[in-house]
């Protein structure tokens, strides 16, 4: 975005009343097509954005749109859940804690 475009965007953002009235609601495929057109008109590399959409894969591999990391769903006891929640309070996610515990378990048995 050029400096003048940045200034224009900042002025526009600072003055919400200048946004005007909504021009209708777009949903599903129509919203995707419109969004892509807006990005292209702004000079954004839409292909690069699409490659970056979503969370990175857990295994560090380059993912593709719609591709997910492998998942396991299982139940834990109330005591295990409480301990995981307590550990998660130290800034790590519950998933990170469970992955770390599983890695330690599997490494000890490999």
- The residue-averaged pLDDT reads 81
Number of helices, where a helix is a run of at least 4 consecutive DSSP H or I residues: 5
Evaluate the radius of gyration: 22 Å
The gross shape turns out to be: elongated
| Assembly context of the chains | single chain
The biggest beta sheet reads: none
Poorly predicted residue ranges: none
**Element-level helix/strand string:** HHHHH
What fraction strand? under 5%
The secondary structure category is mainly alpha
Overview of the structural elements:
- The protein has helices at about 5-15, 30-40, 45-50, 80-90, 95-110.
- By secondary structure, it is mostly helical.
- It folds into two domains: about 20-70, no CATH class; about 80-110, no CATH class.
- It is elongated and about 60 Å long.
Features of the shown structure:
single chain, 110 residues, mainly alpha
Summarize this structure briefly.
The chain is mainly alpha-helical. 55% of the residues lie in helices and 0% in strands. The protein has helices spanning 3-14, 28-41, 46-52, 78-88, 94-109.
């Amino acid at each position: 975005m050029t400096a003048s475009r940045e200034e224009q965007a900042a002025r526009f953002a600072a003055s919400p009343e200048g946004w005007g009235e909504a021009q209708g609601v777009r949903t599903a495929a129509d919203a995707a097509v419109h969004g892509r057109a807006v990005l292209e008109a702004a000079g954004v590399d839409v292909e690069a954005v699409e490659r970056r959409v979503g969370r990175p894969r857990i295994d560090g591999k380059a993912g593709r749109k719609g591709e997910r990391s492998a998942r396991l769903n299982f139940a834990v006891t109330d005591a295990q859940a409480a301990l995981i929640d307590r550990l998660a309070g130290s800034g790590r996610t519950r998933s990170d804690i469970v992955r770390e515990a599983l890695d330690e378990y599997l490494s000890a048995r490999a």
